[in-house]
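Intended use. Records like the one below are meant for learning the mapping from a protein sequence to its folded structure. Do not use them to infer anything beyond what is encoded.
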Amino acid sequence: MTDEVILTLAVLGVAGQAVLAIVLGAGALRLAGVGGPLAWIRDVLWGYELWAAFVVAAIATVGSLFFSEVADFPPCELCWFQRIFMYPLAIVTLLPAVASDYRVARYLLPLPLLGAGVSVYHILVENGVVKETQSCQASAPGGCAVKWVDELGYITIPTLALTAFALVFVLLLLAVLEAKEASNEPSAGPVPHC
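Structure written out for the chain above:
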């Protein structure tokens, strides 16, 4: 069962990376003056950005708990820091989503951004680009450089975390844009996109 769950989480990670590539591509097109693809993405998500961010954060939280509590992979020091930034997102995205309060999204943006920074650092440690600290070596058997998961040639636990942080950041950013547009419009309905 553990192998199946790990593979499922890896596939979800790849799917999340594909979604990120599509959104980033649409954002790049928007910067080039072609707003259609980004407008379509915003229309699909309109009003559900915080719910989507909650789902991503909740899956990442449950996945992290699965790795430590079911698969018995001891979390290293960097994993704990990533958890510090992810776990609150599973709660603080749900509450404003229930209340449809998109103004809160701007205050949540630092959490996935900082968590992504820790994930990038962890990936660099895992791959030997950055030397592992002594506290990292002491925090778990084998330290922070151990790849407890290595699926599809590149999916590791910090790669999954980075994907989740990036998705949550993009979704929160879209929620911030929605809140900004809603505060600028005279009526309560959605604003057409360019």
